[in-house]
Amino acid sequence: MQVRVFNNKDEASQAAFEIIKDGMANGAKTLGLATGSSPVALYDKMTASDLDFSNMTSVNLDEYVGLSGDNDQSYRYFMNSHLFNKKPFKETFVPNGLATDADNEPARYDQVIANHPIDIQLLGIGRNGHIGFNEPGSPLDGGTQKVHLTQSTIDANARFFADEKDVPTYAYSMGIGSILKGKKILLLAFGEDKADAIKATVEGPVTTDCPASALQNHDDVILLVDEAAASKL
Ligand code: GLP
Q1: How much distance in Å is there from the Cα of 175 to the middle of ligand 1?
Q2: Domain range 2-226, its CATH number among 1.25.40.10, 1.10.260.40, 3.90.1170.20, 3.40.50.1360
Q3: Of 25, 29, 64, 225, which is most buried with the most CB atoms under 10 A?
């Protein structure tokens, strides 16, 4: 695992942008994408660039159960507004929050991932070390699951909703096993709130208590962090 510490989010996001640009120049066709505030500066750089994504495919990590793509709190809406509406991709995949067959949605999404092997997987990290919505306790080798969000994640996400009661309690998330199949993995983390999770990811044992620690088992992971997120290393 390579840890690169930057003065600020902008510099780290620029480095992530360069890695994606080089990857595309070297044949990357499928990007695994993430939501949350951490990748926003990177998406701004992608949309401001002259890179052409019209031959690219994206596969997103997760989606809230019960939210439609038109709901401005859904991850589909987030991706459309931050990236896809500005830079069209060939195909974009996000789990379907309104899947009528909820039991089948994880298997359907696993098939999407199998059909579109991910060249570069982008990740943020939760304060409790979650990646995607794989909360502590999730299997480190699993596929897509319907997951029950922890109170800490609900609290962290409540700022985006009018009322905490509106925050969905379930999500579909790509599993850690699927994430680890990405050929190259980039994890972005900024701010002091992430320092404990980054320490556990890099220095802790590989344990379900910190889902991101499973990244230690992958041979091409780059953490792009600011000084605050790196402050406990
Ligand atoms: C959510 C998302 C994660 C994201 C995390 C951190 O829980 N499911 O993919 O990494 O939030 O978000 P932020 O980047 O806003 O700190």
Answers
A1: 15
A2: 3.40.50.1360
A3: 225
